Known about the structure:
It contains eleven helices and 14 strands. It is an alpha/beta fold. It has two domains: 58-161 and 287-310, Response regulator (Rossmann fold, 3-Layer(aba) Sandwich); 163-276 and 314-373, Response regulator (Rossmann fold, 3-Layer(aba) Sandwich). β8, α8 (251-258) and β9 (262-267) form a beta-alpha-beta unit.
Amino acid sequence: MKAKNMTDLQKRSLLKFAALSAVAAAALAGCGKKEAAPEPAHAPAKVAASAPAKAEPLKIAFAYVGPVGDGGWTYAHDNGRKAVEKAFGDKVITSFVEKVPESADAERVIRDMATQGNKMIFGTTFGYMEPMLKVAADLKDVKFEHATGYKTAANLRTYDSRTYEGAYMAGVVAGKMSKSGTLGVVGSVPIPEVVRNINSFTLGAQSVNPKIKTKVVWVNEWFNPPKETEAATALINGGADVLFQNTDSSAVLQTAEKMGKRAFGWDSDMTAYGPKAHLASAVINWGPYYVKAVGEALEGKWTGGTSAWWGVKEGAIDLVSIAADVPEDTKNRINEVKAGLRDGTFSIWKGPIMDNTGKELLAKDKIADDKFLGSLKTYVKGVEGKVPGGN
Length: 391
């Protein structure tokens, strides 16, 4: 019995030793690798890798010289802004400030646009040129676009529309429809752009009736309906029976309507402002250029220091809503002019062309280049008077 009891005791000792050895081995194993703790029951589900952050929209601001409701110049630019929104959706955010004067206020407004985070700024009138140059020099990370100017910088470029093409086509209609042989033009500011339009209007009219004469009254503002009305009235009282304008409101057309004469819309389709007087509207479509410029900015392809001058060829200029009583042969001639301007077979400014003092401006068969057109300071033959401050 004693021998058996010793054996049982030894067995129990061996089992106890084995158990202790197992615990020790487990403890030693734990020192080499920690067991992952179980996730709590309320732990959130694991999230997949996040998508790349969406690019911030490009903020774009427009400075307008007149009200968006002027029915003409500024209205046309604002239609271009809306075309940008339609083309690019949430990739852009646009804003505008209207009635920004061509003065020191322009610099303040344009600089404020930049401080508000706008990285692309369009200034839509000639008088913003110097203010925009000054701001562009200080804010190199902003892209500036200036309408109708001629000075550029590394981050500023210019753009314009060949409004003289629309003026010429309006002149073709005016020359056919005038009974008195005297046309009237309400001029805004006597800069080459406006002088060029007055001359082109006259050349168009003379292509139909070489004896046409043109009278001009200057108001020295882009948008001033009362002054435009006074000027239009004076021209009609002076014998003009068809009126044209290079101002931004519909006042000239409305005056012609009230006084029983004919006139044109300018920059936008103005038919509704004087349906009986309206002969046609020489319109500008800024949309194609604005969409192109913004697209370049979004794609990182925008470059400063350049200039663009778009016309009928690029879809920027047109003569629309020609009155029903304009003869078919005249309408056909307008279509021929448009086709020629598109394919380059027709030139409005082709010699011989004389100024109104008898001096030759362009020799026979010579075609004016853009430098010539951009520096006009004198009237062509048939336009009465002198350009203020010019020749």
